[in-house]
């Protein structure tokens, strides 16, 4: 779709040259011998060049400005296919289409070769991806943090009417949008024991000695805002063993045992949401959550201190958003870093932690809120369990000091559930450790006050506030429905793509115009006809395009 009449000739020639250069020198193919996937990779790498130029400019501008930085922690980022998304936000979609047409390549054909980066399985992961695009569009300095799953959401195949799950392999041909950062690697510990030792001032400090260590290696992906307003960073962590091969065991003939530690370590970033129906599955899920939180906090703390800042300025310079309860262990981990690594006293560390963290809730069912067996936490994260016990003790003592002795209320707001085996309530931990808690819509936030966090809301009435974020607007309009976009631009002007909140309201004034209504009806019918054609091609079913379509996509 071309909103402008004809793409600028010089831009088309420049992009065409960029594609051919990368096809030859990065992909290693001559145009005459190139397959469709070779062209896809060359186009992606050409677009990436524009991303990187703006990415570097954004990074320098952020460093100069000293503005507060958002760090968005999420176990899921459902970013999907990025080729058209990036070309669109860079303002190069029509340029790329024209350039490829002159090279005898169909953009619509090669775009479908990009694997769907399904690093999430629903609303939570798509919300995270939308927020990243929104912050880049609004020129808000931000880093997203998550896991670079080798296998994302499973591939769904329907066989004999039943769902079959197959391994999803989105990295088979590599990822042209990412940059490995081996220099940004952090050690993450598990298990072990905790002991006391005096610091330089004679104050007793707790020291955690993990029994196992895993390396978190960073992979960065640039996130482009609309019209390249700014380019932020999505940093995903890959798990690697500290020692990839035990050579002595390998030479002794124990070839499997020599790589056992590698397999165990790399399992952390192997699969999105491993089944937690077994104890081993539960442990792996908890290892995933702590792994990416620990690496992310180390990384952002290093960036903060590297600017010459002190830990006490953390809330003024850093905002950490926890997307659901999966990163809730960040409350205990940030306390550990401030207490054990930075030598702060408890009150200062707790004040900084609460002032820095915020939490987004995604569920209204108390039984659906994440919790972990105390025994598993004590074995896998012994120091964090100590800190959680202390947070809970200070919390309950503070309530009793306010003459709150209702046993049912105290049980409800405790971090430890006692009813069905002792478990750590991660939702309560995230709530207590954050200065702001939100739902994902006005209705959800109001229901949250009345249901899942009713008692905590009574104790902290100003902590819950609403934040609503919609879809990535232009992705679902400009790219998905180009005919409707053309109608909106013709009717309201191209500014509707930049300021939809205000300009779309003006559409009401055109609702009774016969020409607008006729165009809209034609486009709606054309869209239904395209879907009917697709259904017939894929399933052999004929659908009447005059029927009412009720379509649900999850």
Mean pLDDT: 92
CATH architecture of the largest domain: 3-Layer(aba) Sandwich
- At the first level of CATH, what is the class of the largest domain? Alpha Beta
Biggest sheet record? 8 strands, mixed
How many DSSP helices? 22
Using the CA coordinates, give the radius of gyration: 26 Å
- The largest sheet has its strands arranged as 7-10-11-4-1-12-13-17
Global shape: globular
Beta strand count:
17
Strand content: 15-25%
CATH fold group of the largest domain: Rossmann fold
Number of domains: 2
Distance between the termini: 26 Å
Low-confidence stretches: none
CATH superfamily of the largest domain: Glycogen Phosphorylase B
In terms of structural class, how would the helical and strand content be classed?
A: alpha/beta
How much helix, percentage-wise, in residues? Answer: 40-55%
Textual characterization of the structure:
By secondary structure, the protein is α/β, with parallel strands linked by helices. It folds into two domains: 66-80 and 116-459, 3-Layer(aba) Sandwich (Rossmann fold); 481-539, no CATH class. It has helices at residues 9-25, 36-65, 83-89, 93-102, 107-111, 123-137, 247-251, 260-266, 279-306, 314-317, 330-341, 346-356, 374-380, 382-401, 407-413, 426-432, 442-450, 454-459, 473-479, 482-492, 500-503, 514-539; strands spanning 69-73, 77-78, 118-119, 142-147, 155-159, 162-166, 179-190, 193-198, 204-209, 212-224, 231-241, 318-323, 357-360, 371-373, 416-417, 423-425, 436-438. The strands form five sheets. The chain has an eight-stranded mixed beta sheet with strand order 7-10-11-4-1-12-13-17. A hairpin with a 5-residue loop joins strand 15 and strand 16 (423-425). Helix 11 (330-341) runs antiparallel to helix 12 and helix 20 packs antiparallel against helix 22 (514-539). The radius of gyration is 26 Å and the shape is globular. 36% of the residues are buried.
């Amino acid at each position: 779709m071309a909103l402008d009449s004809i793409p600028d000739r010089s831009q088309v020639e420049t992009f065409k040259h960029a594609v051919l250069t990368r096809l030859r020198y990065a992909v290693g193919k001559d145009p005459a011998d190139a397959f469709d996937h070779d062209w896809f990779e060359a186009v992606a790498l050409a677009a990436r060049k524009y991303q990187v130029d703006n990415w570097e400019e954004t990074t320098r501008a952020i460093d100069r400005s000293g503005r507060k930085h958002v760090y968005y922690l999420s176990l899921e980022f459902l970013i999907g296919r990025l080729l058209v998304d990036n070309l669109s936000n860079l303002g190069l979609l029509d340029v790329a289409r024209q350039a490829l047409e002159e090279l005898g390549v169909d953009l619509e054909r090669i775009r479908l070769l990009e694997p769907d980066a399904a690093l999430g399985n629903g609303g939570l992961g798509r919300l995270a991806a939308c927020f990243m695009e929104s912050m880049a569009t609004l020129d808000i300095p931000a880093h997203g943090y998550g896991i670079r799953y080798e296998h994302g959401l499973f591939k769904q195949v329907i066989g004999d009417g039943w769902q079959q799950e197959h391994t999803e392999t989105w990295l088979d041909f590599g990822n042209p949008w990412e940059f490995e950062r081996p220099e940004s690697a952090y050690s993450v510990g598990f298990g072990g024991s905790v002991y006391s030792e005096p610091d330089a001032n004679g104050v007793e400090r707790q020291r955690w000695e993990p029994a196992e260590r895993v390396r978190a290696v960073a992979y960065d992906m640039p996130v482009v805002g609309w019209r390249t307003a700014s380019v932020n960073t999505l940093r995903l962590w890959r798990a690697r063993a500290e020692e990839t091969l035990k050579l002595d065991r390998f030479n002794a003939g124990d070839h499997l045992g020599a790589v056992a530690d590698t397999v165990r370590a790399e399992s952390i970033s192997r699969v999105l949401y491993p089944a937690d129906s077994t104890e081993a599955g539960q442990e792996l899920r908890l290892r995933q959550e702590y792994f990416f939180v620990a690496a992310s906090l180390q990384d952002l703390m290093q960036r903060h201190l590297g600017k010459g800042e002190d830990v006490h300025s953390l809330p003024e310079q850093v905002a950490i958003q926890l997307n659901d309860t999966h990163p809730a262990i960040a409350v205990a981990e940030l306390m550990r870093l401030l207490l054990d690594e930075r030598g702060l006293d408890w009150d200062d560390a707790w004040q900084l932690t609460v002032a820095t963290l915020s939490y987004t809730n995604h569920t209204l069912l108390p039984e659906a809120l994440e919790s972990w067996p105390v025994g598993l936490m004590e074995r896998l994260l012994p120091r964090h369990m100590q800190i959680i016990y202390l947070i809970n003790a200070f919390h309950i003592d503070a309530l009793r000091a306010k003459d709150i002795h209702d046993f049912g209320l105290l049980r409800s707001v405790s971090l430890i559930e006692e009813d069905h085996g002792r478990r750590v309530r991660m939702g309560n931990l995230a709530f207590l450790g954050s200065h702001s808690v939100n739902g994902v819509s006005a209705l959800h936030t109001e229901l949250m006050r009345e249901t899942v966090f009713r008692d905590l809301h009574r104790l902290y009435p100003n902590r819950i506030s609403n934040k609503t974020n919609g879809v990535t607007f232009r992705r679902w309009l400009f790219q998905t429905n180009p005919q409707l976009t053309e109608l909106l631009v013709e009717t309201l002007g191209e500014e509707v793509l930049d300021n939809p909140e205000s300009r779309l309201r003006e559409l009401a004034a055109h609702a009774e115009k016969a020409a607008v209504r006729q165009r809209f009806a034609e486009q709606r019918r054309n869209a239904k006809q395209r879907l009917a054609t697709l259904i017939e091609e894929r399933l052999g079913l004929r659908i009447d395009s005059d029927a009412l379509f009720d379509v649900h996509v999850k």
